[in-house]
Structures are given as C-alpha cells and as structure tokens.
Design brief:
Length: 146
C-alpha cells in the first residue's frame, strides 16, 4: 500500500473495497474499528448514512417461497428502494444521476444493503410467491418513474 497525496482524485474502486470489507466481516464475524475507519475514509458521509440505516433496521430482505427468490429493500428518506446486490444497482435518484454522470459511485442504500447482509443484521420477511408481483410492482413503478 503506497501512501497517496491528499489531493489525489477518487479513482478507487468502490465496489471492490465494499465487497472486500463485507467478505472480511463475514469471515471474521466482526466489524472492526479499523474497517470502519477504512470505509469512512473511502465513502465518507455515505458510510455513516449506510450504517445508520442498518442500525435503524431499514434494510429488509424479502424471501419468496417456494421459488427461493429474494428482494432487498432499503428504506431511505420516506421511500423504499430496491437494491440488486449482484449488480450493485439501486432504484434511487442518487444512483441514477451518479451513473448518468459516469461517476459510478455507490449510493448509501447499496452500502447499507451490503453491510447488513455481511453483518446478518436485517429483517428477513418470508412470503409466498403469489405476492411477488405485488411487491415488485411497487418497486418497479419507482424504476420506470421517469
Ligand atoms: Zn440508492
């Protein structure tokens, strides 16, 4: 690890750093102060916001049976957003504009989802497949809003 100047541009790979930190949390079953410090350095305010959502129980995982499909939902400012962990996609405006501007930064909903999954700190809601379309249609209406 080389020491970088404070004025270097934020060219770090956020996805890789977040995934790496989460794997470490799962492996060691602890969220060390050192990791928190690293994530604070990389994500700054977004990390604190994400951790706040996790600790306030704003991350939910819907598990559908018998298909086994899952949906992750993070409640932000009064609205639910769907996070797709595999593609690190979120339905919020923040994510949309970041991607449009090619900043490719992660929004704090994604960070919250990743952390809560690693920490196993989320509500798991079991539902039957018959309710899948009802749940997703609410979320899809957000995606196609504009
Ligand atoms: Zn988001």
């Amino acid at each position: 690890m080389s020491r970088q100047g404070t004025s270097s541009p934020p060219t770090v790979n956020e996805n890789r750093i977040l995934k790496g930190a989460c794997q470490e949390i799962v492996r060691t079953r602890t969220f060390s102060e050192e990791q928190k410090q690293t994530l604070t350095t990389v994500f700054q305010k977004r990390f604190q916001q994400a951790l706040g959502l996790v600790e306030a129980g704003k991350v939910r995982k819907y598990q559908f049976a018998p298909s086994g499909r899952t949906i992750w939902v993070v409640t932000g400012r009064g609205r639910d957003y769907q996070v797709l962990p595999d593609s690190l996609f979120c339905t919020c405006d923040d994510y949309y504009f970041r991607v449009m501007e090619h900043k490719k930064q992660l929004c704090y909903h994604i960070i919250a989802q990743q952390l809560s999954e690693a920490m196993s700190k989320h509500d798991a809601i079991d539902m039957t497949d018959s309710r899948y379309s009802e749940i997703t249609s609410k979320l899809t209406s957000i995606i196609t809003r504009e």
